[in-house]
Amino acid sequence: MTDQAVESEVGRARPRKEDARLITGQTNWTDNISVNGLLHLAILRSPMAHARIERVDVSPALERPGVVAAFSGRDLDGLGSLPCAWPVTEDIVLPDHPPIAVDEVRHAGDPVAVVVARDRYAAADALEAIEVDYEPLPPVLDLEAALAEGSPLVHSDKGTNRSYVWPLKTGEDFDSVRQRAEVTVKRRYVHQRLIPNAMEPRAVVVTPLAASGEYTLYSSTQIPHILRIMLAVVTGIPEHKLRVIAPDVGGGFGSKLQVYGEEAIALAVARRIGRPVKWTESRSEGYLATHHGRGMIQDVEIAAMRDGRLLGLKVDLLTDMGAYLMLVTPGIPILGAFMYPAIYKMDSYDFTCTGVFTTRTPTDAYRGAGRPEATYAIERIMDELAAEVGLDPVELRRRNWIGHEEFPYTTIAGLTYDSGNYEAATGKALALFEYDKLRAEQADRTARGDTVRLGIGVSTYTEMCGLAPSRVLRDLRYAAGGWEAATIRMLPTGKVEVVTGTSPHGQGHATSWSQIAADVLGVPFEDVEVVHGDTKAAPQGMDTYGSRSLVVGGAAVHHAAQKVVAKARKIAAHLLEASEQDLDFADGVFSVKGSPEARKTIQEVAFETFTSHDLPDGMEPTINAEHLVDPDNFSYPHGTHLCAVEVDTETGRTKIRSYVCVDDVGRVVNPMIVEGQVHGGLAQGIAQALFEEAVYDDEGNLVTGTMADYLVPSAADLPEFVTERTETPATSNPLGVKGVGEAGTIASTPAVVNAIVDALRPLGVHDVRMPCTPERVWRAVREARS
Asked: At 211, is the pLDDT very low, low, confident or very high (cuts 50, 70, 90)?
């Protein structure tokens, strides 16, 4: 080490360590994995949304070239039920979820049979030889009709399509608030189903070791540790005999926060035939079989005084579970339940969520997971209230938000926001957006009767993320905790291994964790290696979702590194013949106060520890350390997003003219990674507003089953973004960081739709159902005029 001060790593825009390998193809995706004797699986899926299985004959498939084995659901019966880890109420209706259907299929794409062959093409070709007889049953598609008396049932043995009812009522009774309110506004908002589109489709490889009964499962998963536990439960394989590895994973957005039937099927088949097997989904197969996101109806009522002061909010939510409850399906809207009041003060909050079974692909976590839906509802109805009372939308928000001097603040929903400054973020966004100038232009164009109308959308948000406090998750009936683990290993040569329980799939953990560890230890960034995604190499972890990795996993790295320094201090003091209190530690160097020439680098201490030639009495020959973090609170990023659109009232075409967002994600570890996360989130939130929708026909068939029908926007479909930040450090973790992975998705959708409605409001339009396609915008204009 030199005497020159080392620049802090945290806060530097470091290029990602992972990128050179990823962009040159030197990667190890699950589908790249090949082992001796590997066989390939193909899965026959139901073409019907709801039917009784009368007969499955796989024997014709066995006559096809290259086919080794074939199994029906009954052949693999006994696998158990796929887990639901979040039974949100005591009386929840929780039907069995077989990994492969045995007696009944309940959505198009439900697995029915599996073929094992020497290559994936032979396996796929053999599927057409399997004979299946179905007895059609009525589909269940409409959420309200599904709850009506006499409706066809998705699970006939349960006697209802209602999975659960979950209420949250706090503060003053809403009926009494409504009576004293001077203004009430009611709206219905519909969130369409969204299909996740990670760059890498799902895949799984299972390699059995028959002699010892051990199995290694590679999966493109976000949750290797949770997956290991759950598959052990489902398959009966002892947990200590099962190793799960998440290699390079090409995105997830919540879709790989799951225990899928294909993983259980692959394990069962490998166990049965004693050979390694691989399954990789096609994109169209994934559209049917990978869980979907959103899918809900929100009936929202807001009560206020004529001056705009909020009194209360009432939300009645119908949410589409799909055919089964998957890992956290019921809990997704419950996460949103706490976020409908958002950044606003009010006297009453009345929330009720009803989960409904339908004969569609199950829903579960999709980027934001409940928080985008809540933000959409409150930010849309705040705009409607602003129009009703004649206030500018920004001014209405300003009159009701929590002031920066009021933090920490406990909301009407019971959350305690630890820090924030909504005024600063909004002020910065308005200046960058040139808000007043755009409003003046809008007024001028409206006065001139311009057929291409200018609209301005506002969205202020906060979110609860860093899903962690285990006691809170217990109270919400979540089956697992929210802690996270990290281990720092100091190697004899002074290099560092950071073992993390989080499992990245594009977020840049290897880079950010290296920056955190390098700062605490005072070692070069390049000397740190991050180990993750393997339950044998990183045995403890709760994995990656809900913008929790940095605020929980990163904090664990920070604490573990501090423990290493504390251990190294004892040895350095012994070697330097000084007391621990007389040592300074800076930039990786221990030095004696007043005698700077008496010094030891932490790397030198690591080597001395390895030799164990001269250690303090009773000191173990290691300065390695581990730490588990279970925070006391969530983290609460916030921000303001502003969108200007031009809407052609004659064609319905919407063009985003400008987009400005100012997010506050606390202290920033790597600005480059933060920018990437925000841009990606904006793309997905705008996609919901304008482009994406999973559409089913009246028989329950998915008619948007390919990228030709389901519009995933490209860079050409999106505007340039102006992104900035304010910084109010979190108090819930030592780094002062807040989550950023979902922020863009949460705020952008209502900003865009608010802008469209703002453009059309003078024509009498109060809502356009998402996605706001040219046809829907055009029809909204025509209906308003008529």
From this structure: confident
